[in-house]
User: What shape does this take?
Amino acid sequence: NLQILLRRRPVGAPVPEDFEIVETPVPEPGEGQVLVRARYLSLDPYMRGRMSDAKSYAKPVALGAVMEGQTAGEVVASRHPGFRPGDIVLGGYGWQRFSVVGPERLFKVPEHDPPLSTSLGVLGMPGLTAWVGLEDIGQPKAGETVVVSAASGAVGQVVGQIAKIRGCKVVGIAGSKAKCDFVVRELGFDACLDHHGDLDAQLDAAVPEGIDVYWENVGGKVQAAVFPRFRDFGRMVMCGMIAQYNEAPGADAAGAPPGPNLGPVVRKRLRIQGFIVSDTGWPRYGAFRAQMEGWIREGRIRWREDVVHGLAKAPEAFIGLLQGRNFGKLVVAVD
Ligand code: NDP
Assistant: This one.
């Protein structure tokens, strides 16, 4: 079994030496378990958190253990009555070719229509994140203005398209002209701003009316530019702050970068709420998937993936994710 282990905890940005690639025997499923052969591995920003032993909502990956991740692939052996060899599933575990998993978060999914890799993206955890966060927190209404950061990425692309379906004006923020062109032309956002340019001036021009919903994926300078532009009763969906993931642990307290002045929260009656998709998302996966598949069939939701070939390339691809090198949902085609 080809596996990628966490060799050491990164200080700052991860480097290839933080990972180790090993070959081990293929594991056997125990009673009630299933052996999955991964075809695709999802690479996601949260994995940076699992590499660190700073206090968080989930346990860190132990040193020497296989890196955490979700895969989609084929059941090759089963000791669970609900799954048979040949079943195509979402829910394999880890940066590895073969994994043994229980049935709790294992879902049978189609192999081709839509393609299996989408079960890690638009029809997977990132899509579910967008759907849950908008439904529970953002609650965009027709005619409102929605701003989405990391707009061309796995979560951002879905957030913006759902907000368009809801009848909103949607403005993305992304890291290059090519990403912005994609967001406007392919995904149908009303505008997209490049955060390497003068974001204040671009926001002045794009959202003079102010912002009703800001979907926060990035933090840092982008957040500082957006925050003062909320309208009364605005909602800030705190999904992630990837620009800060490589900062030293403890940046929550001492050493944190100066944040926005929170005074307007009271005056404007803003709602700022964080969420973790795994808290309430997976029990609603069936409802989410049915709605999203419907939108895809109707041509109302599109997606872009960034596929890297070969499991051994995962560390390098993941390092790039934290620097904006991916363009679309980042997945590894394992073989
Ligand atoms: P993406 O596919 O959007 O990839 C990450 C993108 O972030 C990069 O492509 C880059 O886009 C942007 N980025 C990276 N570094 C920086 C930086 N220093 N400054 C500004 N932008 C940067 O990832 P996901 O869609 O998977 O995740 C987006 C966010 O959602 C992350 O913060 C993630 O942690 C969060 N998330 C939260 C979940 C939850 O349950 N709360 C679940 C899933 C994801 P660009 O080139 O456009 O800058």
Q: What stands out?
A: Residues 125-138 form the longest helix (14 residues). The first strand starts at residue 2 and ends at 6. The chain has ten helices and 15 strands.
